[in-house]
Specification:
heterodimer, A: 207 residues, alpha+beta, two-stranded antiparallel ribbon, globular, B: 546 residues, alpha/beta, Rossmann fold, 11-stranded mixed beta sheet, 6-stranded antiparallel beta barrel, 23% strand, 5'-3' DNA helicase activity (chain B), Helicase HerA central domain-containing protein (chain B), 3'-5' DNA helicase activity (chain B), P-loop_NTPase (chain B), HerA-like (chain B)
């Protein structure tokens, strides 16, 4: 399976910072087969394929937030068309309903023969662009992205905490749980990180 | 090599704090230096500024930055592994604050350290003192020139910084080796003896050995060790081991005080009679006084003074006190036989009771002192060379409660001996039981592991120039490690005592092995005795008699 076959979940429509992007999830009007809700769930790893300096790279991020946008909301005036016919007479009301996602950029990897190689967890120097297609990263590739120098790493840890704020614990916990299952040999060390994370977030709320 | 940077002055007036990235090089007790300009007097007597290395001793280490405790939540997972997973570099994470105390720069004219009385400025580079600087500056001794190679610095790799003690210094200003049992005090003392018997010093040593631990010093005479002890001019050390049976005191060598101390509870008139009789006998200048001589003289004096009953009462007391193997009217340990340059005499006192040991030390050292004083005053003397006496179990001979015949003579020698060439080495595991004055007169100290708080206090009181930081190391020292301080060294330091050339005898008995051996021997039983069942005719034993 190569990266190109992964589900396209949306496109980049803006950013809040170099590592904090906003994506719009494809709807029925944009794609024949729009993504399923499980394709853009909270904590889903996604990527954008780009060629930089002649090298195909995957910019890998994670969905840390979602926002629903309905321009029709709060308009109480009369409609010319019946609801069933709105698609035809006022398509914008339908089009403009959006699911926006916050994507935190975690790192990047080179792509060779459709495979992720040399994953890096540092901030990429290059930016994503508007309309870049966001794809769902398969579970297999999630694991591959975390294998740096032959061991599991989450060097982006602090960046998620900074970008995702209060949601960081849940996202990281989810990632850690999955990594622990997939890499039982490194579960102990990951467990130390996970417990520390839980303690800090949860105790931070109590204290 | 720069190992750290000064960050701020410390709490004490001579202290400063260094920040260093790792702890591998700088251990507590280590020596570091920085360079600074100081005003010194040059050879022409003019004052000029010179750049000097100013040495300091590391007294403490605190971690300033390191991994958080949370990284150590699982004992099976190293904090490094956790940090790596989070993308935190694991190199150079630890930052240490090192506290150091300024010792000073080495003043070639004083042959000692001089404290510049100012701590370095923040930002000053701190380097590790080189081995050769330390060898040159810690003590004033040159190898092979009347020096004792005692070991090496503890915080450096073995044999990197060799420590030589000047034998002249510690034999004239006295020495103490203080350590709890099993931490190697007799081992250390033996190393010193070995060094003093080498061709470059050829000492005259007398070892008082109440436990019989120093017998193996006679290995020095062995052919196998000839490369260590033989001199090019044919010198070879002699070792004499004297067993308790060989040790006797000639009665005429006792002082009146000695006599009083061994005579059982004499009354005043008895003392008067004995004093008179003894003085008369002494004035006759007879080297040989027997018990009978004393008894006859006492009787004579008793009659003269009309104190016959006291004289009679003294009669059996004298018998009781002197009629023992230790005292003899003619045999004695003659000083020329005991003491000679290049000779080490070990007096093994293991079966002698405590009072006899004290009496022996008292008589022997009084005589040594007298002969040495006579020599220095240009009178006829049996000892024309300095001598060094090593007293194992020193608290027996100079106890804090003062109850020992030997204390006064030892006190005299320790306070005046340096003038007359009598050096004393006190070895003890109970410094708190040694007389304070005696302890403080031993100007060179080798202190090893001491756990008893009373003894630690005694060491603190008796040893002036060892800082708190070094003394706090005392309970944690392992056998063979010692703090050396005092007049023979320029600043106190931690040493690893070198290995002995001769065999060490004072190991504890291997009880379990001995028990097994004895049990087996008993099981074998005496030969020729058969079990009752195995005896001939045993089967008929229970037959009724017809």
């Amino acid at each position: 399976m190569t990266l190109e076959n992964d589900t396209e979940v949306g496109s980049i429509i803006g950013s809040n910072s170099h590592i904090d992007y906003v994506g719009e999830i494809y709807t029925e009007t944009m794609r024949e087969s729009p993504p399923e809700p499980t394709d853009f769930e909270f904590g889903q790893f996604v990527y954008v394929l780009k060629e930089v300096q002649g090298q195909q790279r995957a910019f890998i991020g994670i969905i840390y937030d979602t926002q629903l946008v309905d321009p029709d909301q709060g308009r109480s005036g009369p409609r010319l068309a019946q609801p069933d016919e709105q698609n035809i007479f006022q398509p914008s009301y339908v089009d403009e309903k959006q699911v926006l996602t916050g994507i935190a950029l975690l790192g990047y990897a080179e792509v060779e023969d459709g495979e992720l190689v040399n994953p890096e967890h540092s901030i990429p120097r290059w930016t994503l662009e508007i309309d870049d297609v966001v794809r769902k990263l398969s579970e297999e590739d999630v694991i591959r992205f975390h294998e740096v120098d032959e061991e599991v790493r989450l060097e982006y840890y602090q960046r998620i905490v900074d970008v995702a704020g209060g949601f960081a614990e849940d996202i990281l916990s989810q990632v850690l749980t999955e990594l622990k299952e997939e890499k039982p040999g490194e579960a102990d060390a990951l467990d130390v990180i996970q417990k520390n994370l839980e303690w800090q977030t949860k105790m931070g709320g109590v204290e | 090599m720069v190992v750290g940077i000064v960050s701020e002055p410390g709490e004490g007036s001579n202290e400063f704090v260094i920040v260093t990235p790792d702890d591998t090089e700088i251990k507590t007790g280590e020596f570091v230096y920085y360079t600074s300009d100081v005003e010194v007097r040059n050879d022409d007597g003019e004052i000029e500024e010179q750049e000097k290395k100013i040495f300091a001793r590391v007294t403490g280490r605190e971690q300033q930055r390191g991994f958080p405790d949370q990284f150590m939540a699982d004992p099976g997972v190293s904090p490094n592994a956790v940090a790596r997973k989070l993308g935190i570099s694991t190199d150079g994470v630890d930052l240490y604050n090192i506290t150091a105390t300024v010792i000073g720069y080495y003043d070639e004219q004083l042959n000692d350290f001089t404290n510049p009385r100012i701590v370095p400025e923040p930002g000053t580079e701190i380097s590790l003192a080189s081995d050769s600087d330390l060898e040159d500056y810690l003590t004033e001794a040159e190898p092979e020139e009347g020096s004792a190679f005692i070991g090496d610095l503890i915080h450096r790799p073995p044999e990197r910084t060799k420590i030589h003690l000047p034998i002249d210094a510690f034999t004239s200003t006295h020495l103490s080796v203080l350590a709890s049992t099993g931490s190697g005090k007799s081992y250390t003392a033996s190393v010193l003896v070995e060094e003093m018997m080498q061709p470059d010093s050829r000492a005259a040593i007398l070892v008082l050995d109440p436990h019989g631990e120093y017998g193996s010093l006679d290995d020095m005479e062995e052919e196998e060790l000839s490369d260590k002890f033989r001199g090019d001019d044919g010198y070879s050390p002699e070792v004499q081991i004297k067993r308790p049976d060989d040790i006797q005191i000639r009665i005429s060598e006792l002082s009146l005080g000695d006599l009083f101390s061994i005579i059982d509870d004499p009354s005043d008139p008895q003392e008067q009679v004995l004093a008179e009789a003894w003085n008369q006998l002494q004035s006759e200048e007879d080297d040989y006084i027997s018990i009978n001589n004393i008894q006859d003289k006492v009787e004579e004096v008793g009659e003269e003074k009309d104190l016959e009953s006291s004289a009679r009462a003294l009669d059996w007391r004298i018998d009781k006190a002197l009629d023992r193997d230790l005292f003899d009217h003619s045999n004695h340990l003659s000083l020329p036989e005991l003491l000679e340059p290049g000779q080490c005499t070990v007096l093994q006192l293991d079966t002698m009771d405590l009072r006899d040991q004290q009496m022996l030390v008292s008589v022997l050292f009084r005589k040594i002192n007298q002969e040495r004083v006579a020599h220095e005053k240009d009178r006829e003397s049996e000892l024309e060379f300095p001598v060094f006496g090593l007293l194992e179990e020193g608290h027996r001979f100079a106890p804090a409660d003062g109850d020992a015949r030997s204390l006064p003579v030892l006190s005299t020698i320790l306070s005046e001996g340096r003038k007359f060439g009598v050096g004393i080495g006190i070895i003890s595991q109970r410094p708190s039981k040694i007389d304070d004055d005696v302890l403080s007169q031993c100007k060179t100290q080798i202190i090893m592991q001491i756990q008893n708080p009373l003894d630690q206090d005694a060491v603190k009181k008796g040893v002036e120039d060892v800082g708190e930081d070094l003394l706090s190391e005392l309970p944690g020292l392992t056998p063979g490690q010692a703090i050396i301080a005092g007049d023979s060294v320029n600043t106190p330091f931690l040493t690893r005592i070198r290995e002995r050339h001769t065999e060490h005898e004072a190991e504890s008995l291997e009880a379990t092995k001995r028990w097994q051996q004895n049990w087996k021997e008993q099981q074998r039983g005496p030969e020729g005795v058969a079990e009752p069942e195995d005896e001939e005719g045993a089967e008929n034993r229970d037959q009724p008699l017809d």
